[in-house]
Known about the structure:
The complex is a heterodimer. In chain A, the strands form two sheets. Chain A has a two-stranded antiparallel sheet. In chain A, strands 2-3 form a two-stranded antiparallel sheet. Chain A has nine helices and four strands. Chain A is mostly helical. Chain B has a six-stranded mixed β-sheet, sandwiched between helices. In chain B, strands 2-1-4-5 form a four-stranded antiparallel β-sheet, covered by helices on one side. A two-stranded antiparallel sheet of chain B has the order 11-12. Chain B has eleven helices and twelve strands. The longest helix of chain B has 16 residues, at 177-192. The chains are: A mainly alpha, B alpha/beta.
Amino acid sequence: MGNNVPAFLLEKPASNDYRRGGGKLRSSFLEKGIHRLADVVTTGYVQWETAVQDSFFQKIDARIKVFFLLFFILIVSLKKDIFSEALIGGFIFLLVVISRLNLLIFYKRVLLLAFVFGFLIALPAAFNFITKGEIVLKVWQLPKAYSFWIYRLPAEIGLTREGIDGVVMLTLRVANSLALSFLVLYTTPFSEIVKALKTLRIADGFLMILTLTYKYIFIFARTVEDMHLAKKSRLVRQVANSEARGWIAGRIALIFRRTQLRCEEIFKAMLSRGFSEKIRMYEGRKLKTRDWAVSVAFLLIGALFLWI
Amino acid sequence: MEEIIRLEGICYNYYDQVPAVCDISLTIGEGERYAVIGANGSGKSTLLQIMNGLIYQSKGKYFFRGHEVSEQSLKDKGFLRFFRERVGYVFQDSDVQLFCPTVLDELLYGPLQLEIQAAEALDRAFEVMKMLNIENLKDRPSYMLSGGEKKKVALGSVLTMNPEVLLFDEPTNCLDPRTQCFLVELMFALSEAGKTLVIATHDLALVDDLHTQVALLSENHRMEKVGTSEDILQDEELLLSVNLVHEHMHYNGPSAHKHKHSHYFFHKH
Lengths: 308, 269
């Protein structure tokens, strides 16, 4: 072997110092994208960590939590006044606190999504050209009113009391629904949620696909991150965006090919462990007295909110 | 022996929460064969990735040839080139390392990155293929290679850059005995050619074969001991404490006895 070592491998670097300068390396879109993908794994890990904590909501059976989620989302949709929505919001806040979730992270996510998908979407409805009513804040004065087909633009444009109520109502509904969903997601391991969906008579085959998909998103994210590190270890200069795009295209093709091969291997592994047409998933543990007590309490609280 | 790598109190946590390595300090000399050993999950691969500047320590300092290696210093184009052309990394999973269309493209990628003339880069690629006996694979895509062939191509893709330091992550994992033997011989040849070899492994036979300096990591991700392979491998109590060997029970008729066991100690394989 010794004699086979090529001559160039015996060459030593000319200097142990480097030529300074040449500018700073900018993070490429590729690097940023990969970091975002790596966040998927981190987020998944953090969610799992909070879901297995020994706190109030975490200890409740996932089936009860799924029914709680559906029941309360129904209540949130049925209520038609801001006061009731605010009360439900307060109740969810209490559950978040006693479940020892990070309030800042939790409400940052809820409020951001509620702002985009609730407030911003509903905002035009606050104006008098959509919702008629008493103008509480005048925004614009046009020289005259304009009419086009069935639409009418009044001369005085402003926010109406009825419109603002509608926007606040919709934003609160979206925020409460999101908070309920995140509360269940952050306090229940994903595998338990999938098992709980079985009680809603969702087909086992679909649940199996859901489980495998969730699992392989993580494997995929890790593979992409590892590939990126392997490339980074051989990278000695700034990569042009066109070059980075070429690399991504190559990686997509390779991952597609590997996914196909992995899919075949998984199917063989399933066959070897007795897979046939019928998928049978483990039902999980029996409900405890505490689960029943909590579900009765949630039912009573829900009924109270409906009655208010 | 001139110092080439120095780690001072290195710590790294995954997800900013799970400790991977804690307070690791070590020095590696030029041309040395150095093994980082420890049980699964002790932080060997993490340490190697830090040494290659792929991830950055949360605490402590890392020096390569006296220059500090950090996220900041690797943003300097001059230093990035200096560092990357001198430190090569052979990943445990060869699949992630092979990202070019064919074997020949893999071997050319590094030299072309270093802006070496195409003719010289080709010479390097063919010489390395000859050394690794993979000339017949040059036009194959990586997914059409066996595990041993992938490992050879991954190693070749690093060698064509002619690095001073070669970091090997679990190099003998999943390789058949013949390829393992080939790899050990190759490592010796590279060591004799003046390369510094750093190997993360739990293969005690490999450590013994290569007569390395050894850093032993404990299961709580700390440095347990640094010494020669002879010192470390003969200390069975120490290896037992870090779960690199285990107590084995034998049944002889109605009686049973326990002794410390590893395939390396008892069967030399």
